[in-house]
Amino acid sequence: MRIKSYPKYKPSGVEWLGDVPEHWSALPLRRVIRSVKTGCTPTGAEDSAFDDNGFNWFSPSDFSESVILGKSNRALSEEGKKEVRVFPPMTVMLVGIGATIGKVGLSTDESSCNQQINGIICGNRLDSLFSTYYMKTMRDFIVKCGKYTTLPIINQDETKNLIFTLPPLTEQQAIAAFIDRETAKIDNLISKVETAIEKLKEYRTALISAAVTGKIDVREDK
Question: What is the mean pLDDT of residues 158-168?
């Protein structure tokens, strides 16, 4: 794949970020979002608040390398849903406390989360998928921003003050689509390589077994 650079760059003013394309902005997150809210846990009895086939309620264990959050490990019943903050589709979920601080995922459906997670609702200048990819890139920086007591934590105000690069909205969407497309190709290649490795392992095992059980004559021809 040919990599093409932008014609002109400028300093972003942020040390870890470096230069950005000349027509991009670098702004605190608070200027391009509608809100940042923390999730919560239902106060009701365990058996009445949760339902395996119910409403997504994310916790840090639900986050993976995937940018899109899937089905949560635990889900809420209609009763439990009444007791929590409900986030709209396309909310960016950021783990804000604990060993997995900085992990991020995008919830494409209406959902909820526990108190370890901040739900970020983007404004009309910020694409949710682009912002999720961007926050994945800046995880190390988010970890460094976390205040340490017993556990590392980044609160709502600190989340709002994170600096974001801001291309025009259509360009954000193009960048997110490019990442989706190119990483899908890479993931497909990884899958093929992993399949080939498994087949080679099977062949290796079969070869050893055949050799030691007399199925292969390894004597040199005389």
Answer: 93
Burial of 213 (0-12, 13-18, 19+ CB in 10 A): exposed
Q: Which helix (H) or strand (E) holds 112?
A: strand 112-113
Exposure on the CB side of residue 102, measured as CA atoms within 13 A:
17
Distance CA 184, CA 182 (A): 5
Taking the C-alpha atoms of residue 128 and residue 207, their distance in angstroms, rounded to an integer, is 51
The answer to whether the beta carbons of residues 182 and 175 sit under 8 Å apart is: no
How many angstroms separate the CA atoms of 222 and 210, rounded?
22
65-85 pLDDT, tens digit per residue, is 999 999 999 999 999 999 999
Cβ–Cβ contacts within 10 Å for residue 173, how many? 14
Residue listed under structure tokens 């804000």 = 96
User: Where does 9-167 sit in CATH, by number?
Assistant: 3.90.220.20
Computed on alpha carbons and rounded to an integer, the radius of gyration of the chain in Å comes to 24
Q: Are 32 and 123 in contact (CB under 8 A)?
A: yes
Q: How far is CA 4 from the centre of its chain?
A: 26
Give the strand pairing for 75-76 and 50-58.
Answer: antiparallel
Calculate the average pLDDT of the chain: 92
Q: Could you tell me the residue ranges of all domains in the chain?
A: 9-167, 168-213
